[in-house]
Amino acid sequence: MKQVEPISSFDKIKLLADSRRMEILRLLMDSPATLTHLARTLKRSPAWIRHHILTLESADLIEVGEIRKTGKVTEKYYRAKAGALLLQEVILPKGKKPILIFSGSHDLALEEIAAHLSKHVNILSLSVGSLDGLVNLRQGLCQISGAHILDASGEYNTPTVRHLFPDRDMDVVTLAYRTQGLMLAAGNPKAIKQIPDIARADVRFANRNPGSGTRLWMDAALCKLGIPAENVNGYGAVVKTHTEAASLVASGKADVSLGLQAAAHQHGLDFIPLFEERYDLILPRDNESMLSPLFGYLQTAAFRTELNTLTGYSSAHSGEQIPV
């Protein structure tokens, strides 16, 4: 079975930005070919093909798989060294401040923390949802993640962390407890009171992205109530953050969404609380030193004061380490 190989070298990615080399490489991924075969397929001269072949070969992306001699003619059959390539490279700012990449579930408190620490460290966010954030952490695409995944056991995050990182020492630190519920247009004109109401024909729902903790909770709630997702108008149209979901409701493009009480408050929406959740920061223990400014700030009175200004947030357990 051929393998998919990751490419994390910017030089190789830059090399493949040339569409001509990419086309040659894709042909060689499908089957070995000679310069003559490639020239005939691409309607180019063998000399033109040879130039790009040498470039791909020097980058270790292709190799000579077979040499055939027919009389006085010797032909080299080139082949790609991988069945497919996965391109992944994070391009970071170049400056004096350290760079930290956060990937995970969107959180309003983290936005405030990033702003407070901006003089000392540049925290960049890749909001992809709780589950995909942990996957990014596993793949080394970020230094820290944030999640609020409720396991079937009733525990937040730690079962998922144990499953994804069985071979690593991980730290799980509580950022805050947050209240989530139904975010509704001001005055609640559709008289929405509970989860089954979002399946009404006259209600438009703004959904969150698959893999987000909020989406996982909603999927489970609908399953428990026996409501098919296809019965919910707008269930397939998703946004990546609580702020985006609240904005859709505030602008009249949706009637309801599941999200943070703080986001509803910021957009002047009505809100029906449904549950309180624990939101944790997750990181490999090896990353502790580079993240010390962030965790140092979590222990300050200034942080707790700031967190408590967010409606629906509680700082009672902020900074506590959760055993994994």
Tell me the layout of helices and strands.
Blueprint: E1 4-7, H1 10-16, H2 19-30, H3 35-42, H4 46-58, E2 62-70, E3 73-80, E4 84-87, E5 99-104, H5 108-116, E6 122-127, H6 130-138, E7 145-147, H7 158-164, E8 170-184, E9 205-208, H8 213-225, E10 238-239, H9 242-250, E11 256-260, H10 261-266, E12 270-284, H11 292-298, H12 301-307, E13 313-314, E14 321-322
Question: Any overview of this molecule?
Answer:
Strands 7, 8, 9, 10, 11, 12, 13 and 14 form an eight-stranded mixed β-sheet that branches. Strands 1-4 form a two-stranded parallel sheet. It is of the alpha/beta class and 324 residues long. Helix 3 (35-42) packs across helix 4 (46-58). Helices cover 33% and strands 26% of the residues. The chain has two domains: 4-87, Arc Repressor Mutant, subunit A; 99-322, D-Maltodextrin-Binding Protein, domain 2, CATH 3.40.190.290. The radius of gyration is 26 Å and the shape is elongated. It is built from twelve helices and 14 strands. It has helices at residues 10-16, 19-30, 35-42, 46-58, 108-116, 130-138, 158-164, 213-225, 242-250, 261-266, 292-298, 301-307, and strands spanning 4-7, 62-70, 73-80, 84-87, 99-104, 122-127, 145-147, 170-184, 205-208, 238-239, 256-260, 270-284, 313-314, 321-322.
Number of strands: 14
Q: Please state the oligomeric state of the protein chains shown.
A: single chain
Q: Specify Rg, calculated over alpha carbons.
A: 26 Å
The overall pLDDT, averaged over residues, is 94
Shape annotation: elongated
CATH topology of the largest domain: D-Maltodextrin-Binding Protein, domain 2
Q: DSSP strand (E) fraction? A: 25-35%
Helical percentage: 25-40%
Largest sheet data: 8 strands, mixed
CATH architectural group of the largest domain: 3-Layer(aba) Sandwich
CATH top level label of the largest domain: Alpha Beta
Spell the H/E element sequence.
Answer: EHHHHEEEEHEHEHEEHEHEHEHHEE
**Poorly predicted ranges:** none
Distance between the termini: 36 Å
